[in-house]
Amino acid sequence: MTTGAAGAAVAAGDDPGHPLSASSSHLVSASSSHPGKAAGPREAAALTGSAKMYRKTAEDVTFTFDAHLAAKDRNDPSQATGTFHFVHLDEPGGKGGWAKGRIDCLMTGGKVATATGVIDETNLPEIKDKRVGFTVDDKGRGKGTQDRVGYSWAAYGGTQGQPDTLAKCASSAPYEKVRKGTGDFDVLPWKFDYPTGR
User: Fold this and answer.
1) 153 and 1 in contact (C-beta within 8 Å)?
2) From CA 116, how far away is CA 168, in angstroms rounded?
3) Which residues are registered as beta bridge partners of 148?
4) What does the angle CA 68 – CA 69 – CA 75 come to, to the nearest 5 degrees?
5) At 94, phi and psi to the nearest 5?
6) Phi, psi at residue 72, to the nearest 5°?
C-alpha cells in the first residue's frame, strides 16, 4: 500500500452506493456539526473534513475525517470517537484501494491533529483490522494556503501488524499537500486540564 493502496485490482468507483465509492458524498464533505443536539460544553478536540491529495500524476487520493474528543474525556485522547475514510485510485473513477474505520485516538496541538483508527471495511483483506495513523496540519482557508496530511504507512509502504502494533495517536509528519479546490480540513485545538502540581 502506498498512499491508500495503489495497484489493488478492485475499482472503488464500481459501486456508487458504497460509502467509499469515488462518487460518494462521504468523500466530498464531513461536518463537525451535529444538527439537533442541544448546545453543550465545547468538545475537547476535533478533526473534520475531506480533501484530495496533490499529485502530479492522474492518481486520485482522498482522505476524510470526522473525529471528536468529548469535553468529559479531555484528558484521555484514547476516548475519541468518529470515523476515517481513505481512497487511492489510479485515476478518477479508476481502480485502487479503499478503507474506512473507527477512530480510537485523537490529539491536537494548535491546528495540527494526530489521530489513529482501526480499519473496519476495505477491499484489501490484508489491512482489515489494522491500526493506521494520520496527521493533519490545518493551514486555514486563506488565499494560497494548502493543508497538509501525513499517514503512518508512508515510510513502510504498508500497514504494520495488528491493531496493537502501532501505538495510538502515532503517525508521520504531515508532508503531503492537499490539492487546491478539492476540500479542506478543520482542526479544533485540544482543550485539556494542565497539571496543577501539589
Assistant:
1) yes
2) 6
3) 137, 177
4) 165
5) -90, -155
6) -65, -20
Question: Nine-digit cell at 131?
Answer: 491500526
**Cell numbers given for 136:** 493533519
pLDDT in tens, 66-99: 999 999 999 999 999 999 999 999 999 999 999 9
pTM of the model: 0.78
First to last CA, the chain: 49
Identify the H or E element spanning 97.
strand 96-109
- Please count the other Cβ atoms lying within 10 Å of the Cβ belonging to residue 90: 16
In the chain, how many H helices and how many E strands? 0, 9
- Looking at this protein, which amino acid is placed at residue 9? A
Residue whose grid cell is 503517525: 171
In the chain, what percentage of residues exceed pLDDT 70?
Answer: 73
Can you tell me the distance from the alpha carbon of 140 to that of 112, in angstroms, rounded to the nearest whole number?
A: 11
> β-pairing, 60-69 with 81-89?
antiparallel
- Please count the other Cβ atoms lying within 10 Å of the Cβ belonging to residue 70: 16
